[in-house]
Amino acid sequence: MKNLFSSTASNLFKFAVGVIITFVMTPVYVRELGNYDYGISEMILSLVGYFGLIDMGLRPTISRFTAFFRGGKEPQKSEALFTTSFVLMSMVGVVIAAILLGWSFIAPERLAPEGGSPARYAVVLQLFALQVLLACPRYSMESTFEGQLQYSLKNNVIIFHTIASAVALYYMLPHYDPLVLLCWANVVQAVSKLIIFLWVLATPTYGSNRLSPARFSWDLAKEMYRFGFKSFVQGIASRIETKADVLVIGAIIGPQAVVFYSIPQALSSRIRELVQVLSHVMMPAFAELHSAGKKDRMVDVFMISSRLIVGVLGLLGGGVVLLGGEFIRLWMGPEYAERGQVVLWCLVAYVSLSYLIPLESRYLTAINRHGILARITIVRAILNITTSLVLVHFMGVVGVALGSVIATALTAPVIWAAVFKNLGVSRIRYLREVLQPTLLAVGAMTLAIYLAQHAELHEKWIGLIERAVLGGLVFVVAFYVFALTESDRVKLMGVFRAFRGSKTPAR
């Protein structure tokens, strides 16, 4: 279990780097590209995300098969897995690249603004095609690292490229065509990562994985596709739910309006990502407890962990609602704050509803009751698109964000019911032990920030930081008082010691 903790720590570090890069570079991208080209880049990325569904759930399947074969089971399949995975994902890349190339030759003018050059946007599509062609086989190798629980090396390579690319673009964007340069930077990153991962995975430390046509197995490919179908169904719904909003805005209002959604989403999505990182370690823990028949222990771990993660959700979500508008004003400018404030509130509500039970997916997957997740996520995605398409005509960008809130509010209770039923925990108990302490802490933080706004604090960034620190400290103290008991701390430390393989009994 040591690798689980080191992997989680590595994921948290990568997350922190991503937050910093986003904070520094987003104003640069918007300034240099302009609202239109920035919106175009976001729309193409969303479309590429949809095209990625062609992988039929291969990425999580590769991780699972890699982990399964690590113990020496079925050595012939283990040898074939790397080449088979690489070839299958390369085929996905070829299909997506062909679609983008065809678009670049047939109708590039669909991307160009009035009076703009279609040839320029044809080049952009061709560079995106090249990037995808290189990135898809790399994804198979990233999944191999994850199956080996070697997140640290993979993340370090990604972090290095992210920082290097950001530094280069910061200085070069003003001197070249910014959109084309951004695409070229992504291509260079894709080439470099592909070469590094191929070299590292060929070393004995990481499995001596080498590409060989003789090792490709159609039987293994069929088995992988069969296993990945459930992940594929969930992936369809999840991609639609998370990518559709940008496309709806770009198609109906125009690419120039996408930025007024993407900027608030940059804040709300970080909350989502952090919750996912924090909950990642819990799925194997639940699976182990479930297999051992330790239901009471699993309930304890679920409740304690949920309380802590919901606390983080409350701290960040409450902070973004209270201070996010001012942050965007200082970060991006008054126009983005004015047009993005209500969008931000809607997106934080959407994320909060989605993770009100942050371990629902981890728990249901661990006990093999996750079929409901796929079914409900599909319904949620359909509702999301339908409500967004209707509301965008009346409320603009805000209507699209509100569509996500409505779809989640209508479907999430079904999943919550499945969790409570399988866990054997009542809604009242969850509300009292998990949600109530966070709500009290958020209330205390809100009062502190409200009082601070009427005090004579510094202006601009210094004043914002002062209010954020004050609110955060008040939240932590209130959460400690209301949420954590001595018994909880003892149980939590016992779980962590068990994961680290410690034989020292909990005090």
Question: Given the C-alpha coordinates, what overall shape results?
Answer: globular
Individual helix count: 17
Number of strands: 0
Which structural class do the helices and strands define? mainly alpha
| Sequence stretches where pLDDT stays below 50 over 5 or more residues | 502-507
Q: What composes the largest sheet?
A: none
Strand residues, percent? under 5%
Strand-helix topology:
Elements: H1 2-51, H2 58-69, H3 75-106, H4 118-147, H5 151-172, H6 178-201, H7 218-252, H8 259-279, H9 282-291, H10 295-331, H11 334-354, H12 360-366, H13 371-395, H14 397-423, H15 427-453, H16 460-483, H17 486-499
Helix pairs in contact: 1-5, 1-7, 1-8, 2-3, 2-4, 2-7, 3-4, 4-6, 5-6, 7-13, 7-14, 8-10, 8-11, 9-10, 9-12, 10-11, 10-15, 10-16, 10-17, 11-14, 13-14, 15-16
Can you tell me about this structure?
With 507 residues, the chain is mainly α. It has helices spanning 2-51, 58-69, 75-106, 118-147, 151-172, 178-201, 218-252, 259-279, 282-291, 295-331, 334-354, 360-366, 371-395, 397-423, 427-453, 460-483, 486-499. Helix 5 (151-172) packs antiparallel against helix 6 (178-201), helix 10 (295-331) packs antiparallel against helix 16 (460-483) and helix 10 (295-331) crosses helix 17 (486-499). Mean pLDDT is 83; it is low at 502-507.
